[in-house]
Structures are given as structure tokens and as C-alpha cells.
Amino acid sequence: MSSKTSSPTGKNAPVAEWQLRLYVAGTTPKSAAALANLKVVCETHLAGRYSIEVIDLLVNPQLAAGDQILAVPTLVRKFPEPIRKIIGDLSNEERVLVGLDVIPRD
């Protein structure tokens, strides 16, 4: 089962500009840290313009094949294209922002 988290929106809100999918394996400390770190980054830099879908591969292992997930936690930016992936607990904010292409690479 996947769960969705998103920023607060009204009834007529536009589709989120940033569609993110976080793959985890159960409720491990690393998975929880990745989700918490991702929420901080999104609220700080993408407030009101993102959606997060959390996919637990212990519940739905078949979903790993679609995005070619080899390690968890893995963050996948589905939109805007191109698809980008970041593996790890997302604790390095600058690495996450560069990886998602929110800020340019140096």
C-alpha cells in the first residue's frame, strides 16, 4: 500500500509541479529520516508545489521494477522530467537540491 503526503491545497488547486516518489523498506530509522528530511527540503524550497508518494517495498515489492529501484531509501523525481533518482537518507540538503535540479550544479 502506498501513502500520499502533500502540501496543503484547496479544492481548485493546480496539479503539483514537483511529483516525488520515495521508496522505503518498512519503517526503519533510515526510511523515517529520509521522509522527514524530504519534507523539510520540500517545505523550504518547493512549498505548495509538490506531492510526495511513499512506497513501502515490503508491502508492494513489485513496484520496485517500474522505477528500477536497487536500494532503499530512494527518491525519484517523476515530474518535472527528466526522471532523477537520489539514494540515501536525504540528510545532505545541498546534494538533494542539486540532485532534484532545484538549484544548479556548480
Automatic annotation (TrEMBL):
Domain KaiB: 21-102
GO biological process: rhythmic process
SUPFAM superfamilies in alphabetical order: Thioredoxin-like (SSF52833)
InterPro entries documented for this protein: KaiB-like, KaiB_domain, Thioredoxin-like_sf
Protein name: Circadian clock protein KaiB
Organism: Caenimonas sedimenti
Lineage: Bacteria, Pseudomonadati, Pseudomonadota, Betaproteobacteria, Burkholderiales
